[in-house]
Write a structure and sequence with these properties.
The chain is an alpha+beta fold. The chain has three helices and four strands, in the order ααββββα.
């Protein structure tokens, strides 16, 4: 098993530890320019080391993912060859898809004493004097009534 990113993790650890040492050694001289420089540089090295450790970890995870990809592709190719060489068997019927949901009312308006109801599937229902008639589309309604350029 390959160990991806271990070198980067160790370098990050070394950077973080040297930064911590810089902060510790600069603490005694913090009132002097040299102490501030050591402390600030050490803090920067610690944060850089932590980021480098995280990058090493990411490299390791991505390396393990990359190791698994060719095996998956080879397995898929073998399955394709096996399917091509196998005698044709009767296909099992595919499970029936669930019936579509009924359309949802989108809009409703009243014009000339008739109620027009628009549905999400594009159909239109016209309700006049208690009777209702459903059209598959607005174009079908226009064609049937001859209104609106149909």
């Amino acid at each position: 098993m390959r160990r991806y990113g271990l070198g980067v993790i160790f370098l990050g650890l070394a950077l973080a530890l040297s930064g911590a040492y810089g902060m510790w050694s600069g603490w005694d001289y913090i009132q002097l320019e040299r102490g501030w420089s050591l402390f600030i540089g050490g803090a920067t090295a610690v944060s850089g080391g932590v980021v480098t450790i995280a990058l090493g970890r990411a490299i390791g995870v991505l390396g393990r993912i990359a190791d698994k990809v060719p095996a998956t592709q080879a397995r898929a190719a073998a399955d394709l060859v096996e399917d091509a060489q196998a005698p044709q068997q009767q296909q099992q019927p595919v499970a029936a898809t669930p019936p579509p949901k009924p359309p949802v009312e989108v809009d409703r308006y009243i014009a000339s004493g008739s109620v027009y109801v628009m549905f999400s599937d594009g159909s239109v229902e016209v309700q006049t004097d208690g009777a209702a008639r459903r059209y598959p589309s607005l174009a079908a309604l226009r064609a049937d009534t001859g209104v609106g350029g149909g």
